[in-house]
Amino acid sequence: MPELTSTERVRDRVLSVHPLIDGRGEYASLSRQEEFDRLVLSSDCDLYESIPVPIRRMTAATLFGSGQVEMIAGQVKIHEADVVFVDHQLSPVQQRNLEKGWDAKVVDRTGLILEIFASRARTREGVMQVELASLNYQISRLVRSWTHLERQRGGFGFMGGPGERQIELDRRMIRERIKSVEKDLAHVRRMRATQRSGRQRSEILTIALVGYTNAGKSTLFNHLTSAEVYAADQLFATLDPTLRLLDLPGGNRVMLSDTVGFVQDLPHELVDAFRATLEEVIEADLILHVRDASDPESANQKQVVEDTLAELGLDGDDAPPMIEVLNKVDLAPQTRSTITEEIAGSKVATSALTGEGVDALLELLSNWFEKGMQEYTLHLPLSDGKRAAYCHAHGRVLEQQVTDDQLILTVRMSAKHASKVL
């Protein structure tokens, strides 16, 4: 029998359930529900119903009350659902009990994001990072895989049955795999540190793009660098880090880094696992915070990004400077004039899709690059092509004159760079 292609394969019938926790306003946010449903759809399935469920008091066994569990079980039966996605982090016991009560696979918020990340990672590093996060998530849920094995006690009273022994074997295997992946990722971090050290020695500054998922970072990255990084109107389109050289007005060059997007309640497992990728942000000289100006929740998304950066240690005086890029103004014509009025110093409005405002962004980056630079006049021998090339590579040559025996350059550059040619 021939194997089904991706277009012929039967897609899972799924429901999404949104616990509206009493007294926790973020769970009652309509935008959060919409975002979670977009995450569900990103897992390549058919969403049949999205169910908000108010909860006054969380239940240790199932999170929901018994009546709510029965109500959702009825919807699962009506829609013949294969999977129920729950917009909340579930304990292993809650997940197991809900699967029994609903007779369907149950995936919580963390599990869903891990599944999406696993399907999108492409590079060896990205795959390792997702695997590490998944292993840390799975190790506490091993009991779910062995509920069919009874914990039968032997005659001595202290020996576990076959299920218990199998769980311990699996745990040992997972722990060993975790150590192996962590070792490989540590090697990746050393390689990245070496690469950053090389860029620092060659005095190439690094600019990191950060932002809420689907804010348009990769589209902007492609527009600025003429790269072909995958960009799509979906959550977590970019997982693997990408770096490209960017030429600024005046001839200066910087390294631009595209990174994974942030989201509400990003699982801690992923923050830890992707630390190697996010080190490009930690070590950046400048951060471009790309925001979706067309999204009504842009202000809340900004807070999520800032909180995540703070979790990475990027806050206070040691944090790199930041420029806000208010993107997708082509989708927010009613707010374009307001956004334009607010532009001052560390903000710029763009449309990465149409190119609107990109020149202004490049000029702003060029001004940042040249901040603190001074103007120097150098008299170089005509044969000193090395110092002349250094001036063009690390400064802006304003004027160039050639006499019978000299090359006279007027150049703007930092004192650090100028000290190498004066």
Could you describe the 3D structure shown?
- This protein has a six-stranded mixed sheet, with helices on both faces.
- It has four domains: 13-117, GTPase HflX, N-terminal domain (Rossmann fold, 3-Layer(aba) Sandwich), CATH 3.40.50.11060; 121-151 and 160-184; 204-370, 3-Layer(aba) Sandwich (Rossmann fold); 374-418.
- The longest helix is centred in the middle third of the chain and has 40 residues, at 162-201.
- The protein has helices spanning 30-42, 66-79, 92-102, 109-120, 124-138, 162-201, 217-225, 268-273, 275-282, 298-311, 333-342, 358-370, 385-394, 415-418; strands spanning 13-21, 46-55, 83-86, 105-108, 205-211, 242-247, 253-258, 286-292, 322-327, 347-349, 374-381, 396-402, 406-413.
- The protein is an alpha/beta fold.
- Helix content is 42%, strand content 20%.
- It is built from 14 helices and 13 strands.
- Helix 4 (109-120) runs antiparallel to helix 5 (124-138) and helix 5 (124-138) runs antiparallel to helix 6.
Strand tally: 13
How far apart are the termini? 76 Å
Number of helices: 14
Strand content: 15-25%
Helix-strand string: EHEHEHEHHHEHEEHHEHEHEHEHEEH
Number of domains: 4
Taken from the alpha-carbon principal axes, the silhouette is elongated
Which superfamily, in CATH terms, is the homologous superfamily of the largest domain?
Answer: P-loop containing nucleotide triphosphate hydrolases
- The CATH class of the largest domain is identified as Alpha Beta
Largest sheet: 6 strands, mixed
Mean pLDDT over the residues: 80
Low-pLDDT sequence parts: 1-7, 144-161, 230-235
Structural class by sheet pairing and helices: alpha/beta
| Helix content bin | 40-55%
Q: What's the CATH architecture name of the largest domain?
A: 3-Layer(aba) Sandwich
Strand order of the largest sheet: 6-7-5-8-9-10
